[in-house]
Amino acid sequence: MLQVCSVTKYYQGQAVFSKLDLTVGPGRFHVLLGPSGCGKSTLFDGLTGVFPLDGGRLLWKGEPLADLRLHAAYMQQKDLLLPWFSLLDNALLPAKTSGRDMKAAKDQACRLFERLGLKGYESHGAHQVSGGMRQRCALVRTLMFDRDLVLLDEPLSALDAITRQSLQSLLLMLQAEFKKTILMITHDIEEALLLADEIHLMSARPMSVSRHYVLSSPKPRKFNDPALLAVKAQVLDQLEGGLSREPH
Amino acid sequence: MNRINLPAALLVVLILGVWEAGVYLLSLPVFILPPPSRIVLVALVRTPDIFPHALVTFSEILLGLGLAVVTAIPLAIAMFAKPNLEKAFSPFLVASQAIPVFALAPLLVVWLGYGMASKVFMAWIIIFFPICVSLLEGFKSCDPEFRVLFRLMGASFFKTLTLLYWPWALPRFFAGLRVGVGVAGIGAVIGEWVGAQKGLGFLMIQSNARLQTDLVFAAILWLTAMGLALWHLTGILETIIIKWKKEI
Q: With an 8 Å Cβ cutoff, is A84 touching chain B?
């Protein structure tokens, strides 16, 4: 679906990532796992056209593409709900900005509200509901983009453990029920192991894919799955090896 | 907002008390410094004389305010949309504040006459800057992550303006409006001092020449009351329009 070919980005003369390659297959849950500050979010900014890449190219379903702006939905660490809109109006933003038929969009959003346990909260303000509900609303908004690829930039890192767990199942739903292809950034190994079909382990700057793991355990997964524990040990080993090799 | 600011109220009572007592103890003649009790009495008893003048000044302030709002908003939007426009206009905006209004007043009376137009223009010059600059700063203060979100939604500038930038900047706009309302009277009164046939400024000059100092103070009292009323009205308007701000 998406091929990232030899993309490069420099910041103040130093490479954040250089000749980075990534292939994202349709319907798959890809996770970019790496230490904080290695440049994962910069890669997303480059892919979405927030700033231009310094080299390489993107292929979308085989066709060259400048950026993913009109092809991917984006969900960030913050829920980014606007306080002057109700939850429903926040969810309807992608429809409002793209000029879609509002009646159909509203019906779709209401169905998603029901599916994600937000029914009855449509007219509530973002400040009137819990952090978990805000994230679910952000998820509805992400689905309302009506795009095949969803980019998730550490969407769960700001949440408490219990809320995070329930939202992890929502992300699985995003893939299984709504047939979305997902590219997620995280630095949480366990989150990656629970959710990913493929883990791309990123090295420190200049960032590159140091290892690629394909996880075939059925979902939902449990932490005591021996296959996952084996991958976890490998990932930790790789990360520790990477850290010990870093210059002091 | 409805709560009485006790320290301020006590300070006002103290100042008025010292003033009142000082005038009696020093046996100051009324034409030098009338006591506050006399000023309030004159302001009330002479209402039929003062009111027509106050109405003129109030109209000048309101017209200046209206003109400033309808000109500041489009210019702030244009400068935000096109940074080159901001570069072009910024020196003029700063210069408009550097020129003392007193220096312009006689010229404006020559150009626009003794009627309301010269006073409205004076009020406009004073109010325009805080509104325009506050609104522009409000637009610029928008969280970049929201900009990215709207960019990814494929939102046009107009959609982003109406759904994101404008509501985001509203609190700053009202802050500027409050500053504008606070100083609006200065422009109108200075204009009336230089040349007018009606208005509180005209009344002050006339009364001063006749050593009716109590009437001068009464006019100032009316002007202050009008300024405070407008200031509070702006606050009420802000609370109604930015409901979400209060609820957060």
A: yes
The reply to whether A36 touches chain B by the CB within 8 Å rule is no
The better pLDDT of the pair A169, B35 is held by B35
- DSSP assignments along B116-163, one per residue: HHHHHHHHHHHHHHHHHHHHHHHHHTS-HHHHHHHHHTT--HHHHIII
A70 chain-B contacts, CB cut-off 8 A: 154
Domains of chain A in start order, with CATH, are 1-71+150-160+180-248 (3.40.50.300)
- What is the full DSSP assignment across A105-145? HHHHHHHHHHHTT-TT-TTSBGGGS-HHHHHHHHHHHHHHT
d(CA B20, CA B33): 10
Of the candidates B155, B159, B248, which has its C-beta nearest A83's C-beta?
B248
Q: What is the pLDDT of residues A28-83, one digit of tens each?
A: 999 999 887 788 888 888 898 888 889 889 999 888 988 888 888 888 778 899 99
Peptide bond into B34 cis (omega under 30): no
Percent of chain B with pLDDT over 70: 97
Test B156 with A97 for CB contact under 8 angstroms.
yes
Q: Do A70 and B160 touch (CB under 8 A)?
A: no
Characterize the bridge pairing of strands A55-60 and A63-65.
Answer: antiparallel
Nearest to B153 among A45, A83, A97 (CB): A97
Spatial CA neighbour of A17 closest among A62, A56, A50, A60: A56
| pLDDT at B96 exceeding the cut of 90 | no
**A29 has a chain B CB within 8 A of its CB:** no
Single-letter residue type at A8: T
Q: Per-residue pLDDT averaged across B195-216, rounded? A: 91
Mean pLDDT rounded to a whole number for chain A: 86
Cβ contacts below 8 Å, chain A against chain B, sum to 58
Q: Taking the domains of chain B in order of start, what are their residue ranges?
A: 1-33, 35-247
A243 touching B, CB under 8 A? no
CB contact under 8 A, A48 and B148: yes
> Chain B contacts of A76, Cβ < 8 Å?
145, 148-149
Encode pLDDT of A217-233 as tens digits. 888 888 888 888 999 99
**What's the Rg (C-alpha) of chain A?**
18
Compare all CA atoms of chain A with the CA of B144 and give the residue at the minimum distance: A50
Q: What is the pLDDT of residue A246?
A: 47
Is domain B35-247 in CATH 3.60.15.10, yes or no?
A: no
A44 has a chain B CB within 8 A of its CB: no
| B159/A50 touch (CB, cutoff 8 Å), yes or no | no
Q: What number is the ipTM of this complex? A: 0.79
Q: Tell me what the mean pLDDT of segment B46-71 comes to.
A: 94
Instruction: Note the pLDDT of residue A242.
Output: 61
